[in-house]
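Fill-in record for LacI family transcriptional regulator.
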Amino acid sequence: MPVKGKGEVNSISDIARLAGVSASTVSRALAGSKMISTDTRNRINDLAREHGFQLNQMARNLRLKRTNAIGIIFPLGHEVGQLVSDPFFITMLGHIADGVTARGYDLLLTRIIPDDDGWLDGLVNSGRVDGLIVIGQSDQEAVLRRVSAGFDPIVVWGEKGDGQGYCSVGTDNVAGGAVATRHLLGQGRRHILYAGHADVPEIVARHAGFVAAHREAGVEPAGVIPAPFTPDGAYRLFVDHLAAAPKLDGIVAASDVIAIAAIRALAEHGMSVPDDVAVVGYDDVPLASQMAPSLTTIRQDLREGANQLVDRLFRRLGGDLCEPVVMAPELIVRASAP
């Protein structure tokens, strides 16, 4: 039986006949599926290139009713100035990207500043992704609960809430806030300020731990400032606060970015860290160990968190309605609060 010439090889079936395999094997090989051996994938791709054949991925996705893409969403209803270049976002995104691409999927990265309650519906109904990983609940908890009630393949990095209805992965933030505060109280600090945004479930939980630790010790907190997650915004807020000459010997910050901004403002105000004011951050982003003084912080295992997010999303894509994950925080002691 004659084989078609180079210009006549125009279907998966033609490549399959040349390779001596099934059409489904060719389809998977051209899509990069790890289900097909490396030797077979290479042989099929060599044949496709030799005959000028390209897989029509869009048509294939429409036929299979999937996109082979995962959406990564950063909702910023609470903080329009926060960028994806934020150290926490960058670290988390890198680990998630490793996990998703290892499974042969593409990424669709979206930074959302919600202007109505339909932003998540639009992404779910767009047909552009098979599932969604949401990094942070922001102030969009009601939207996440409503949409996840009708869309299973969605997982969220954030605080586990009662009856939330979706699968979340995160740290025990109440415990983290308490551990940070007990560390400072144990050093004899008695005028400790909490710095963090009030509208984010994770940050609210960290503040609850801060308050609980003070209550245990019978000490009154020095107060709360609603520091944003942007370095300049947090810095300006600390400058204004310090100008009022508060009685202050410790700061528990809701993120490392906020803690670093606090250390900068304290130095410019002529106060030494940790001699005058000890500072504890939250996250343990890579920069925390490199700054001077190095930052004492509450470590969230972001690599493990990303692995859990990816694992649970793909389990949900397979129909498994898995339980939320709550990881233990870890105090990392460095120079800012030794």
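KEY FINDING: Residues 1-7 have pLDDT under 50 and may be disordered.
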